[in-house]
Amino acid sequence: MVDIARDPRWGRIAEGAGEDPYLGSAMAAARVRGFQGKDLRAPDAVMATVKHFAAYGGAEAAATTTPWTSRAHPAEIYLPPFRAAVDAGAGSFMTSFNEMAASEPRQTAGS
Fold first, then answer.
1. pTM score of the predicted model
2. DSSP letter at 60?
């Protein structure tokens, strides 16, 4: 689980490396290398499945289906750990079941 999570109310927050994309990326790569080793054919190797692609950890107020995200967030916040996992040779990915709101929050009258 390499999701970047910043809301402690999200139920899966304890599974990840926290809220920092740099740390999350370093941990994602280390986990992939640790599970898979140098050769997936080795008897002690396990194919890494990286989850949950993508922005599942962007949940706010524990709502896992529609995280709010600006257009910049996926590239800058949520995607770096997944890129690090790919670069480390991850064998598979699990998709998330959320949708992504790719726009700024709506402005209400008077705001």
1. 0.81
2. B
